[in-house]
Design a protein that fits this description.
The complex is a heterodimer of chains A (about 170) and B (about 500). With about 170 residues, chain A is mainly alpha-helical. Chain A has six helices and four strands, in the order βαββαβαααα. Chain B is globular, with a radius of gyration of 22 Å. Classes of the chains: A mainly alpha (about 170), B mainly alpha (about 500). At the A-B interface, α1, β3, α2, α3 and α4 of A face α7, α8, α18, α19 and α20 of B.
Chain lengths: ~170, ~500
């Protein structure tokens, strides 16, 4: 089936069910993590696992009730995410993930410039010259702000020594 | 009373330095930007700036960050009125009458009314804080770990009973927050909890990273789905009209007073500015002579929403300082900041660090006046800034969020947490899971658990300790009442 922008990829009911299951799983993971410690009492009061163990149980119970209520609901569900909206989300998230991946190898300023150029120029369809200018000026401004004004240096990658010359 | 006044004067001696006034102006300016731009909210804005204050004096840091909060609360109304886009959740109620007024050609009047009402609400709130400070600390001295634990539970219970979301979803939110708080070293036994042998989890999960993800990236993803088309009603401000509006503004004294009282109440009892503005708008609609015109551009409606919003914001500082109990997401972030700066909130703080407490309270008087003036002066600037398309501002704000998460600890792992919580925040908001209780849970989690374990230790493991003192009985009954309200609400929705 071809995906049109209007095609609903996720209904609200499916999203509710999915999140309740995830929250319940998180509850189980917390419960499991708490069991590595004593979850009961000792002479020094409740042990390290006492509180997280009960949090995990409660979280499983609360999300279980939410799940049950959604499952018992009848009638048509509203749309939650259309293919068009999903594409917009991915178009925002993927460059951002690329930016985070690039910070390690090339440093934050260069990765940021590349990210801004891709996100504003390529995806936002802002004219090349304008997006190029923004992609250069914003990191330069941030560089001055963080390295000099706030004295909170950000990772500079292999360009670090170069900046040291300034 | 007299004692409070002398303390306040000593506070002014701290806050009225050139350095602190400059910090107030910078804070308000940052706050206005944050308040105006959708995608940059007050909790997120304060979280972004907080790591940069680690090296500052606590009192200077808190003046900077609270000024930012005042700026954000007030700045949110500019876009509400001119664009019908609330810059902050707490200024949603401002759009109801502010935007119709602007469309009718009364933008200047609406903005003037909104800013002056905000200023009035804030000052009313600060006066209440000043007057109550010493009595609430005396009251707070009666608190043992038992009462502290109960009061934390009460804060969560009142979110469940009176919050906007469904009670079950609020509970899930709180539990996720509490669980996130318990990751890392256990404060009592020193053992590592919920780290699953992942070395990055040993230092715990920073609430700052979570807030920037939930409120920053989450909101950007939301805006990405429905990009706003910013069409300003006007971007000009007629100064003669500002003056004329300011002259007739006091005629709304009844709404001003009523809303300021509602705001203070909602600020001290957990509720926060957003709930306060809605509640005040609703009550105003029933009580005002012009109630029937609410929603059609009635100045009384605008005044009701704005006054309560700002009054709640400033009154929230009182329970935060005296009990360590924040009543809004931003107050929770500020509380986390206090702990990082080595300031332990509680009744003894007023005796041990008077220069900090009263420096902050006195700065609130001045910073709110600064905020009103700067908000008026920057209307044309921000109206034009809003017309920059989201395809440009969105990625820039996203980049600032990434940098903000990096400055917390300089850890690459935090950036992945940021991404995860951005998506989680987006999904939770879309499914009507409230986010503020999660932040509250994260900030209060450790102290709530400590209070619980200490009370159990003191009582020898008997749960009857939670009814052991008159004060504990009162708080326990209030918790029971909240649960009753929540259950009755759920039953009524079913029927």
């Amino acid at each position: 089936m071809p995906l049109g922008d209007e095609t609903i990829v996720l209904s609200r009911r499916q999203a509710e069910i999915g999140f309740a299951i995830l929250a319940g799983l998180a509850g189980f993971v917390i419960l499991f993590g708490a069991m590595e410690h004593d979850t009961g009492w000792s002479r020094s009061g409740p042990e390290a696992g006492y509180f997280p163990f009960r949090l995990g149980m409660l979280l499983m119970a609360a999300s279980g009730v939410i799940l049950l209520r959604v499952l018992l609901q009848r009638g048509p569900s509203e749309p939650f995410l259309s293919w068009g909206a999903a594409k917009k989300l991915l178009a925002f998230l993927l460059p951002l993930i690329g930016f985070v991946l690039l910070i390690g190898p090339v440093g934050l300023y260069l990765a940021g410039a590349a990210y801004l150029f891709v996100a504003i120029g390529l995806i936002g369809r802002v004219p090349w010259l304008k997006s190029g200018l923004i992609a250069v000026l914003v990191p330069v401004f941030l560089f001055i702000a963080f390295e000099y004004a706030f004295k909170a240096p950000l990772p500079k990658g292999p360009l670090g020594p170069l900046f040291g010359l300034i | 009373m007299v004692e409070n006044f002398t303390q306040l004067m000593q506070g002014f001696a701290v806050s009225l330095s050139a350095y602190h006034i400059a910090l107030m102006m910078a804070g308000v300016m940052f706050g206005l930007v944050v308040g105006v731009m959708p995608g940059l909210g007050a909790p997120n804005g304060v979280s972004l700036l907080l790591p940069l204050t680690f090296t500052m004096e606590p009192v200077s840091a808190v003046i900077l960050l609270t000024s930012m909060y005042w700026g954000a609360l007030i700045g949110g109304s500019t876009t509400s009125i001119l664009f019908n886009i609330p810059g902050e959740p707490s200024s949603i109620a401002t759009t109801f009458d502010g935007y119709p007024m602007a469309k009718r050609g009364e933008a200047t009047k609406a903005l003037t009314f909104a800013f002056l009402s905000s200023g009035f609400g804030a000052l009313f709130g600060v006066v209440v804080v000043t007057l109550l400070a010493s009595s609430i600390t005396k009251f707070a001295l009666l608190f043992s770990p038992v009462e502290y634990f109960l009061v934390f539970v009460l804060a969560f219970a009142s979110f469940i009973a009176f919050g906007a979301g469904s009670p079950l979803k609020t509970i899930v939110s709180i539990l996720i927050g509490l669980a996130l708080a318990s990751v890392g070293m256990d404060t009592i036994s020193g053992s590592m909890r919920l780290t699953y042998d992942i070395p990055e989890l040993i230092r715990g999960i920073s609430f700052l990273v979570v807030v920037i993800g939930l409120f920053g990236l989450g909101e950007l993803l939301e805006t990405m789905q429905n990009p706003y088309a910013a069409k300003a009603v006007t971007t000009r401000l007629d100064w003669a009209e500002v003056f004329r509006s300011a002259m007739i503004w006091p005629r709304h004294y009844a709404s001003l007073l009523r809303s300021a009282i509602i705001g203070c109440w909602m600020g001290i009892a957990p509720g926060g500015p957003t709930a306060a503005s809605f509640m005040s708008y609703g009550i105003g609609k029933r009580m005002s002579r012009n109630g029937a015109n609410f929603g059609k551009g009635e100045p009384d409606g605008l005044v009701s929403a704005e006054t309560a919003d700002q009054a709640a914001g400033s009154a929230a500082m009182l329970p935060m300082l005296a009990l360590g109990l924040p009543s809004s997401a931003t107050a929770a972030v500020l509380l986390g900041g206090l702990l990082i700066w080595g300031i332990t909130p509680g009744p003894t703080l007023f005796r041990e660090k008077p220069e900090f407490v009263w420096g902050l309270i006195s700065s609130m008087y001045l910073a709110n006046v600064v905020a009103v003036i700067m908000a008026l002066a920057t209307v044309p600037l921000f109206a034009r800034m809003m017309q920059v398309p989201f395809s440009i501002t969105g990625p820039i704000i996203a980049m600032i969020c990434v940098i903000g998460a990096w400055t917390v600890a300089g850890a690459p792992f935090d950036l992945w947490l940021l991404m995860v919580f951005g998506v989680v925040g987006f999904v939770m908001k879309a499914l009507d899971y409230p986010l503020a209780p999660l932040v509250l849970g994260m900030v209060l989690g450790d102290r709530m658990e400590d209070a619980f374990r200490q009370s159990m230790l003191l009582s020898g493991g008997k749960f009857s300790a939670f009814l052991g003192s008159p004060l504990a009985v009162v708080i326990s009954s209030l918790i029971a009442l909240c649960i009753l309200v929540a259950v009755m609400g759920a039953v009524r929705r079913r029927a």
